[in-house]
Amino acid sequence: MSQRKSMMDGTIVRNAVKEAFLKLDPRVMIRNPIMFVVEVGFIITLYLCFDPHAFGGEVPVWFNLIVALILLITILFANFAEALAEGRGKAQADSLKKSKTDITANKWTGTGIKQVPSTELRKGDIVIVSQGEMIPGDGEVIEGLASVDESAITGESAPVIKEAGGDFSSVTGGTRVISDSIRVRITSDPGESFLDKMIALVEGAKRQKTPNEIALNTVLMSLTIIFLIVVVTLPFFGNYLNVEIEVPVLIALLVCLIPTTIGGLLSAIGIAGMDRVTQFNVLAMSGKAVEAAGDINTIILDKTGTITYGNRMASEFIPVGKETVGSVAEWAAVSSMKDETPEGRSVLELMKKQGLSYEESIAEGGEFIEFKAETRMSGIDLKDGRKVRKGAVDAVKRWVEAQGGVIPSDLSPKGDAVAKQGGTPLAVAVDNRIYGVIYLKDTVKPGMKERFEQMRRMGIKTIMCTGDNPLTAATIAFEAGVDDFIAESKPEDKIAVIRKEQAEGKLVAMTGDGTNDAPALAQADVGIAMNSGTVAAKEAANMVDLDSDPSKIIEVVSIGKQLLMTRGALTTFSIANDIAKYFAIIPAMFMLAIPQMDALNVMRLGSPMSAILSALIFNALIIPLLIPLAMKGVAYKPMSSSHLLRQNLLIYGLGGVVVPFIGIKLIDLLVHLWV
Amino acid sequence: MINFLAIIVPVLIVILLARPTGLYVAKAFKYERTGLDKVFGPVERLIYKAGGIRQDNQNWKQYAGSLVLTNAVMIGLVYLIFRIQAYLPLNPSHVANMEPTLAFNTAISFMANTNLQHYSGESGLSYLSQMIAIVFMMFTAPATSLAIAIAFIRGLTGRPLGNFFVDLIRSITRILLPIAFVAAFVFIAVGVPQTLEPSVVAKTVEGAEQIIARGPVGSFLSIKELGNNGGGFFGVNSAHPFENPDNISNMLQMILMMLVTTALPFTYGKMAGNAKQGRILFVSMLMMFIVTLGISLTSEYAGNPVLNALGIDHHQGSMEGKEVRFGVAQSSLYSVVTTASETGAVNTMHDTLTPIGGLITIGNMMLNTVFGGIGAGFMNVLMYAIIGVFLSGLMVGRTPEFLGKKIEGKEMKLIAVTMLIQPLLILAPTAIALAVYPETISNPGFHGLTQALYEFTSSAANNGSGFEGLGDNTTFWNISTGIVMYLGRFFSMVTLLAVAGSLLAKKTVPETTGTFRTDTGLFGAVFLGSVIIVGALTFFPAVVLGPIAEYLTLKP
């Protein structure tokens, strides 16, 4: 996103505070049953402030008032957390909406151009967009080539080239053509465009509870009802013992016991998780897809562009016959001096890297011979008449033979050796003399090996797909450290692999951009399409990567895991907190009637009232204190599950037991000054 | 020293027997042909033929339906026998017909494997009722819960659930009947009576007339303990010298109570193909057992502080309500065993245990996971394991899996309502009893509260032991505990079987390093954590006002 908002951005916070109050509306609150219980408790205690003896209680009004206030603040904190998470999405949506202003489109009517508002464009309409104009809707370039500024959506300021046909034909409404002119066939009706979907997504308007969220919610509900049973039956128990239990104290106990911490933060965690994906410039079509990403067992990656740079780089000069490395390098460099292809440039880079030099003046005034499919060679014709060539080994061989040259006997074996290692051999020759071979290697992107190693630790299997022959594929696969590969793969192979993995119960993720990737993207549990890709690919996928960086799938997996971990960790923390709260409130409740209960007052809290208030205040304060964690997610480093669990159990389980003991005690030291 | 041995020996025997018994149980329920078919096949085939039982696999609804219906029919039959026992044969002591609410309570009580007895065996039931109705249910009730536990395990481990009738019959023919048969002879050998003669009338030295009840106790006793039934032939249960004459009979009773329930984790490990996971569950439960036993012994040996303060010799510990022939050690152990295994047999008055000793018995029943009753306890254990796995699964960032099956919304909904039922069945009726029927509770104050709480806890957990001191043969207690026992028994059976059915329909997810493994010590810790957090938090306020308050106020 171009406008990355910091979490505590002023306007967002102000809006969130406002929202926190608006969300007090019981009709809104009921959607979060746990906090709704707190609100009911608040209303009852508030009523008790005006009619303190309604239930025959003896508690002073000020106590009721303070309990009511703390409950109100607890709800407000929870609402604030949710509003804050929503606010960040809304801010993004607003900036997106700005690029959705009405555009006048040049609609092609078949005979001429008619100016119509963009809102009237329908699927199948054809429009012409020229330099400086906004593209009026999502579509496909059917004629022409243009550079397009997509920063409104991707935040990336460098323009991208869009051309008819191929995998770079899709354009998005709201982006601007900055050079040339294109003819575009519109592919979406108004309100269904990519931009519309994106706005709806970041606004959270279409937010549905994810499967894990639903499962967790039922557990939390169950706990809430259990504690409701506990608290409602308690006065009957007390009554039998002639122990009077005051209603506000019961409400305080209930609110402390029900999992308000996770209940108050649950929706914020979900929204923030989606938001983190968006911040990452990946657009997830549903929270379900993000969650599913955390469960991925297998990732299918294209070799070219994802694992390797895709273009072959010179990595070695191999002399043949009696030639030396120096002479091969020299002529290779000369042949590449005016060669602007990545291969050509990599030859010069390799020279530099190896500390070799050559006479640059030789090439001066020479004529560059471009690579052609028929000749399969490129090179330079020097001023002095000499012809320098580099190219496919057999092509160069034929060229040299035609000029009566002798082919060194070790050329073929050396060439084959390179091919066997997964490289591409380029022979270098000057007129009828062959100097040697350039070893072109497909280079694995830096850091990929570490990433695959990480994934292995996360229990994710990686499969590389490539059109290369099995030998080459095996070499790259080994170098990159992927678990498996499919060589000479056709698009239907990807679907077959996905189906096979899925039949074993695995969840599969893949990235793709071409139209022929679309069926596989749809079949995969998590399909990430590149924004640069075709419309078909984007529609089949459940995530779109706006930066078109296929390796980002790894971060998406991490975010998915983080989302679940944050929920699990805060739930555990929330439930573990109950132990300390019990030890604060239970003795306080009964101490007046049964003085010996003081033995359970392990925290040595000042007075019964201060104990109850301290527990309540802790319960309220913990929500805003955990908002940053809910938003950022629990720290996640790839490691084995038992490691991870041990660590999280220690922090959130044991921590959840210990922290409130300390927290409540500290609050009590302060509160006890008054009560 | 002798006391120490009296504790160590039975516990060690139980531990040693658990694994072989578990493997035997796994084999007994295998549907593929095994060597056991040769021995039991002919009898079973006869029963299948007579009963018209097709041995097809059932889905969870059919299985649960068969179970609930079959049990309902049995409840009806037994109710009828109780109501007309006076007119039926084998009633030499001329016992009268049972009153309707008591018959309702008793019929459910025995079908629910609870054996809460609001009557006294020797005066309330005819020999026919004891033998046909009571002993019949003492076999079918544990057979029912063993059957469903096996079906539940089959479902979790990805096998068809099996057929309820086949499992029910196999539970009896292959497990309960043979073991009970042998054990009965041992009991008879150590002096437990086995006769159909009426009560004996004896003249005491002072010349007073004393009626000494007797009957077919030996055969009754073995299945009472083995099936975790716990209903006494005599009113005072295993404190009666005819029902528990000496140390040998006492030890054998404890071993029988623990035999099948401690074996089930190993059965599970075998069936799941993951012996380690079964072992870890066993060890976790054993740890809880040892801790509760330790606390109970410490408290009972410390004696009653009020009496101690009076300078009364208390080196024997708190002997109030205990049999002199068993002493503190064997009484405490028995009380822990009987509540851990949800048997409900007693050789000491739980009412007179020290407050903390009483807390342990009530706590065991509330958690219902320290082994628990035959079959039903282990299902409860697996439920807590699934809850633990659910939270842990989230904490490692994956949709939680148990035995390779994803735990999702549907399963958690079923588990969530199952979690609710226990506190609801214990706390709500206790509150009603305290508020509306305080006059039926013999003690005031904390101890009285514990009495009522104990009665419903024992009913809900299908334990059946009583804290005594309740005027419990009243319409209120008969009906309320009847309902609690019924729901406590069958509700969770149905919901948990539904969980198994739902998991069975799912694809198995392959295990990776990202999966939370359920065969590590960490899993044991997670299981214990969820039992303690969920179980203990629920009942903390209630036990604070009951046994804990009593303990605190007794302290000088």
UniProtKB/TrEMBL annotation, chain A:
Q: Which InterPro entries match?
A: ATPase_P-typ_cyto_dom_N (IPR023299), ATPase_P-typ_P_site (IPR018303), ATPase_P-typ_TM_dom_sf (IPR023298), ATPase_P-typ_transduc_dom_A_sf (IPR008250), ATPase_P-type_domA (IPR059000), HAD-like_sf (IPR036412), HAD_sf (IPR023214), P-type_ATPase_bsu_IA (IPR006391)
Stretches that traverse the bilayer: 34-55, 61-81, 214-237, 249-272, 579-597, 609-629, 649-674
User: GO terms for molecular function, please?
Assistant: ATP binding
Domain of life the protein comes from: Bacteria
| Active site residues of this protein | D302
Subcellular localization:
Cell membrane; Membrane
Q: How does it sit in the membrane?
A: Multi-pass membrane protein
The UniProt annotation places ATP binding at D339, E343, F371, K372, A373, E374, T375, R376, M377, S378, K390
Keywords, sorted A to Z: ATP-binding, Cell membrane, Ion transport, Magnesium, Membrane, Metal-binding, Nucleotide-binding, Phosphoprotein, Potassium, Potassium transport, Translocase, Transmembrane, Transmembrane helix, Transport
Q: Which residues form the P-type ATPase A domain?
A: 102-203
SUPFAM superfamilies, per database record: Calcium ATPase, transduction domain A (SSF81653), Calcium ATPase, transmembrane domain M (SSF81665), HAD-like (SSF56784)
Q: Which annotated residues bind Mg(2+)?
A: D513, D517
Give the enzyme's EC designation.
Answer: 7.2.2.6
Catalyzed reactions? K(+)(out) + ATP + H2O = K(+)(in) + ADP + phosphate + H(+)
Functional summary from the UniProt entry: Part of the high-affinity ATP-driven potassium transport (or Kdp) system, which catalyzes the hydrolysis of ATP coupled with the electrogenic transport of potassium into the cytoplasm. This subunit is responsible for energy coupling to the transport system and for the release of the potassium ions to the cytoplasm.
- Which family, according to UniProt? Belongs to the cation transport ATPase (P-type) (TC 3.A.3) family. Type IA subfamily.
* Known partners and oligomeric status: The system is composed of three essential subunits: KdpA, KdpB and KdpC.
Enumerate the HAMAP family for this protein: KdpB
Q: What is this protein called?
A: Potassium-transporting ATPase ATP-binding subunit
Tell me the classification of the organism that encodes this protein: Bacteria, Bacillati, Bacillota, Bacilli, Bacillales
Automatic annotation (TrEMBL), chain B:
Source organism per UniProt: Paenibacillus glycanilyticus
Which InterPro entries would you find in this protein's record? KdpA
Where, per UniProt, does this protein localize? Answer: Cell membrane
Q: Which Pfam families match?
A: KdpA
Per the record, the similarity remark reads: Belongs to the KdpA family.
**Could you tell me the keywords of this UniProt record?**
Cell membrane, Ion transport, Membrane, Potassium, Potassium transport, Transmembrane, Transmembrane helix, Transport
Q: What does this protein do?
A: Part of the high-affinity ATP-driven potassium transport (or Kdp) system, which catalyzes the hydrolysis of ATP coupled with the electrogenic transport of potassium into the cytoplasm. This subunit binds the extracellular potassium ions and delivers the ions to the membrane domain of KdpB through an intramembrane tunnel.
Membrane topology listed for this record: Multi-pass membrane protein
Note the superkingdom of the native organism: Bacteria
**Transmembrane residue ranges:** 6-26, 63-82, 131-153, 174-192, 251-268, 280-298, 370-394, 414-437, 483-505, 526-549
Q: Does the keyword Transmembrane helix apply?
A: yes
Q: How does it assemble?
A: The system is composed of three essential subunits: KdpA, KdpB and KdpC.
The name on file for this protein is Potassium-transporting ATPase potassium-binding subunit
